[in-house]
Specification:
single chain, 732 residues, alpha/beta, seven-stranded mixed β-sheet, 26 helices
């Protein structure tokens, strides 16, 4: 007999509410939850395929342990015994820096991935942390840290009240949004235009988002920072800048005009391949709009000047008076954010507190560039990474030069993967710990609620009980922490109770906390929840800004609407000055390099990636319902370039760049501008030893193999994955 259960979709940043149909212990269907306070019934193809992903027969059902060179099925006890025997001994012999930790994108989509990795890092004492952030959004964290003192203080466009929206390097109709959590992004963009607003999209491709726009500009890839600098220059030069109430919170407004003085539209236009008139018109429209927001994403981040582009987005929002303003760009306030922080000076944000061992890459937000992982494993000497813990990560496909990293992983002394699949990375592990399917896990969006376009809170208990032999994902993480820290055999709930005790001890002595002056033991007894993670969530809600408990969420299965975003300055500022530091020193020091780019001779042909509604990085290519059709690994080429190079639609081409060559099928289309080609990321499922039968049947090629990892945004350590030069050769 079938029944239904509610579940927040964990497959992208939109966090849509789903209604699952369950029968015989499996998910038999998924549709949008029409009563969900945030998504209102919206669903995309990924959410509709939730059941197929959940029951994928290639998912691992139990741990694997390497014996005699082969990964073999093992019990959970054997798996954690192996970890406890290997990792502490390695740390004792070679020190904590002999261990590296890699965190993949799926970590922000699970409760376990949010709650436990910080504890793991603290237990290990290593500084060798690599995450997907340096393949994606790290420039935005850096610019926010420098501007506001907090790398997580990222303003998002107020989509539902905005009059003018400028999107750069973003394709939210197909990606569902990023660092801007907004279910039904397409519907919100259509509503913006329906109420008389204007949508302008800047993208070298005519994406589905660009097709919705009032105007589409197709500049040369990688020129986003130059274009944004010219817009800011125009606002200042033509006396259109009007920060309004923001001026009392800002330093360096006067110096900004001088710093951007050489970025006139006329100087920038050739490098962007736009006209000066187009740039000036866009600046004037931005200034004239009743409310406006500038929003840029991965296409503007994964380029040489990604941090400058991210900084200039907020500079434009500030100069037009639209930062921290309804209809502009505001700072969300999640239900688990610490309550009661007063305005005033903070600790600020620093770059380069330490550097990587081999190439000296500066630390950013506690992380080192993912592009440096291979050399940190390969290069001998003190501090070489000998042990790697890869949690929901597949850097062989997501990082530059996967072939080199593939070889490096094979030379590790010991490797652990938490992953549901034996994929291109986890196949190197000595122990693989597979989490259960998402239907068997509780869900709360710790990260994405902090980027949501409307304040709300929702919690999903597990829709199904764990199947025989499965272990809850949070328990896997807790046991891993105990195993690597010499506490193997201790009860896993001890990890959560230690966190709760420490958190309560701080809360009761903090006069700003709602729990100030309470008895920690009594407060601990008040916490509800049947598991440690639920009790931790309950505590975070109780110490948050909305006076909520886990019971409140349980009694509101479709979520609790907490209202539209509200102005929050100066409360979000944590800079040492207590103000917005509009022209921080690292940014000012990088501007001369951007000026130098005005004189660069552009490459004849550059490559950009692309999103697809049915994909999410390398995750979903093993689900038949999400593969095929237009979700193909093809090289998109403009007809003029195809004619010039002798390429034909459906033919083959060799693409060559810094890191090597790939042979790919050609798709001739006028949806991309001339001088630019596009190849999607996340493909390349053709390595021996993985167990992804559907993906292996149509493996595609790994676009990141074209890169050798030397191209980076200097300030953030983010790999340049877009706008890099390539050469094409037709193949028979």
């Amino acid at each position: 007999m079938s029944r239904t259960a509610l579940r927040i979709c964990p497959l992208c940043e939109a966090t849509c509410g789903l209604t699952l149909t369950l029968g015989d212990g499996v998910v038999t269907g998924a549709r949008g939850d029409r009563e969900d306070v945030f998504s209102r019934g919206f669903i995309c193809p990924k959410g509709a395929a939730f059941g197929a992903l959940d029951s994928d027969p290639d998912r691992l059902t139990g741990p694997l342990v390497r014996r005699d060179g082969r990964l073999r099925e093992a019990t959970w006890e054997e798996a954690f015994d192996a970890i406890a025997a290997a990792v502490p001994a390695q740390v004792q012999e070679y020190g904590p820096q002999s261990v590296g930790v890699v965190l993949g994108n799926p970590n922000v989509h699970t409760m376990a991935g949010a709650l436990y990795p910080p504890l793991l890092l603290k237990s290990l004492g290593t500084r060798n942390l690599f995450t997907a952030s340096t393949l994606d959004q790290m420039p935005k964290h850096v610019s926010s840290g420098l501007l506001f003192g907090d790398p997580f203080a990222i303003p998002v466009p107020d989509l539902d009240r905005c009059d003018f929206l400028l999107l750069l390097g973003a394709n939210p109709v197909e990606s569902n949004g990023s660092l801007c959590t907004a279910p039904d992004f397409p519907g919100r963009l259509k509503a913006l235009r329906a109420r008389g607003g204007t949508l302008v999209v800047v993208d070298p491709r005519r994406t589905r988002t660009a097709a919705l726009a009032d105007r589409h500009l197709a500049p040369r890839p990688g020129s986003d920072a130059l274009l944004l600098a010219a817009l800011a220059h125009t606002l200042i030069e033509e006396k259109l800048a009007d920060p309004g109430a923001l001026e009392e919170h800002c330093d360096d407004i006067g110096e900004l005009g001088v710093a951007l003085g050489s970025f006139t539209p006329e100087a920038v236009a050739p490098a962007c391949d736009l006209t000066a008139a187009e740039i000036r018109t866009l600046a004037r429209e931005l200034a004239a709009a009743p409310t406006a927001a500038v929003y840029a994403r991965i296409g503007s981040c994964t380029v040489e000047f990604g941090t400058l582009a991210s900084w200039l987005v907020d500079v434009l929002n500030i100069l037009t008076g639209n930062l921290d303003r309804p209809g502009g760009a505001l700072f969300p306030l999640s239900a688990t954010a610490p309550a009661g922080r007063p305005a005033g000076p903070g600790k600020g944000f620093a770059l380069g507190r330490w550097s990587s061992r081999v190439s000296g890459h500066p630390e950013v937000k506690g992380e080192l560039p993912m592009a440096a992982l291979a050399e940190e494993i390969e290069t001998r000497g003190d501090g070489r990474i000998r042990v790697l813990l890869a949690i929901a990560a597949n850097p062989v496909l997501s990082a530059p030069d996967g072939d080199r990293l593939d070889r490096a992983l094979a030379g590790l002394d010991f490797m652990v993967s938490i992953d549901p699949y034996l994929n291109e990375t986890s196949r190197h592990a000595h122990v693989v710990l597979p989490p259960p399917p998402p239907s068997q896990s509780a869900h709360f969006d710790f990260a994405f609620n902090g980027f949501a376009v409307r304040n709300q809170v929702r919690y999903s208990p597990a829709a199904l009980p764990p199947a025989d032999g499965r272990m809850d994902e949070c328990e896997i993480h807790a046991r891993l922490i105990l195993a690597v820290s010499g506490l193997h055999g201790a009860p896993p709930e001890a990890v959560d109770e230690r966190v709760i005790a420490d958190s309560l001890a701080r809360a009761v002595t903090d006069p700003r906390s709602p729990l100030h002056g309470g008895d920690p033991q009594e407060l601990a007894r008040l916490l509800t929840g049947s598991t440690g993670p639920e009790r931790r969530l309950d505590l975070m809600l109780r110490t948050g800004p909305y006076d909520l408990t886990l019971d409140d969420l349980r009694q509101a299965p479709h979520g609790i609407d907490l209202g539209p975003l509200q102005p929050r300055l100066p409360g979000v500022l944590k800079t040492r000055s207590g103000r917005i530091e509009l022209l921080p020193d690292p940014i000012a020091a990088e501007l001369p390099r951007l000026r130098g780019a005005l004189a660069d001779r552009p490459a004849a042909l550059v490559l950009v990636g692309r999103r697809h509604l049915r994909s999410n990085n390398s995750w979903l290519h093993n689900v038949p319902a999400l593969t095929g059709g237009s979700n193909r690994c093809t090289l998109q080429v403009h007809p003029q370039d195809a004619d010039r190079l002798g390429l034909v639609d459906g033919g083959q081409a060799r693409v060559t760049a810094d890191g090597g060559s790939l042979e790919v099928p050609v798709e001739v289309t006028d949806a991309i501008r001339s001088g630019v080609v596009s190849l999607p990321h996340g493909w390349g499922h053709d390595r021996a030893g993985s167990r992804l039968s559907v993906a292996a049947a149509a493996p595609g090629v790994n676009v990141n193999q074209l890169l050798d990892g030397t191209r980076m945004d200097r300030l953030s350590g983010t790999a340049v994955l877009n706008g890099f030069p390539v050469e094409l050769t037709p193949l028979p």
